[in-house]
Amino acid sequence: MIRCGVAGDLDALALISSEREGVSIQASRRSFERLLEDERLAGAGDAATGTHLLVAEFSGSVAGFGKVARFDPPLHAAPNVAPAGWYLTGLIVAPALRRHGIGEALTRARLDWIATRSPAAWYFANAQNDVTIALHRKHGFVEFTRSFHYPGVNFRGGAGILFRADLGDRPAFSG
């Protein structure tokens, strides 16, 4: 089951994220608290700003999450700054539950959410991350550019690729 994230998910989300990202559970929990607060303040229905957190449940437990964020380039940004729009900004599934379609379901749900706000979705990945590139290709993402800057993001060990999906033309999911 895919649903909106709530405060009761914080401990489970923090554990899943901290294991994957190598940060403390407390730091991860604070990050999710801020995300939920940002979403509450912006209003999940706001088409121009905000964040959104979706959670996957499997057998009554949190199995993973996917995030969405609105990005607007800062004033006086570099000429190659990523374009304004809604971005898929994170997807993590608990290790024991990977390769069971949870990532696919979270990606589809996030794109459905964005489609009610925008005709396009964006995401970026390290060029070496073949798994995420293949996942997103199934959902209509195509390479937009390799020459871009997204504030606060570095691509360790590889180049970044910015991808775009036209949501009105996205293929039916074949997962």
Describe this structure in words.
With 175 residues, the chain is α+β, with helices and mostly antiparallel strands. It has one domain: Gcn5-related N-acetyltransferase (GNAT) (Aminopeptidase, 3-Layer(aba) Sandwich), CATH 3.40.630. Helices cover 30% and strands 28% of the residues. It has helices spanning 10-21, 25-42, 102-115, 130-137, and strands spanning 2-4, 51-58, 61-71, 85-93, 120-126, 142-145, 160-166. A 4-stranded antiparallel sheet has the order 1-2-3-4, with helices on both faces. It has a 3-stranded antiparallel sheet with strand order 5-7-6. The chain is globular and about 45 Å long. It starts with a strand and ends in a 9-residue tail after the last strand.
Order of helical and strand elements: EHHEEEHEHEE
Largest sheet: 4 strands, antiparallel
Please tell me the CATH architecture by its name: 3-Layer(aba) Sandwich
Q: Strand arrangement, largest sheet?
A: 1-2-3-4
Task: Work out the number of β strands.
Answer: 7
Q: What is the typical, i.e. mean, pLDDT?
A: 88
Distance between the termini: 16 Å
Task: Identify the CATH class.
Answer: Alpha Beta
- The count of domains is 1
Report the CATH topology name.
Aminopeptidase
Radius of gyration: 16 Å
Kindly name the structural category.
alpha+beta
Cα shape: globular
Strand content: 25-35%
Low-confidence stretches: none
Question: What is the helix content?
Answer: 25-40%
Q: How many H/I helical runs?
A: 4
CATH superfamily: Gcn5-related N-acetyltransferase (GNAT)
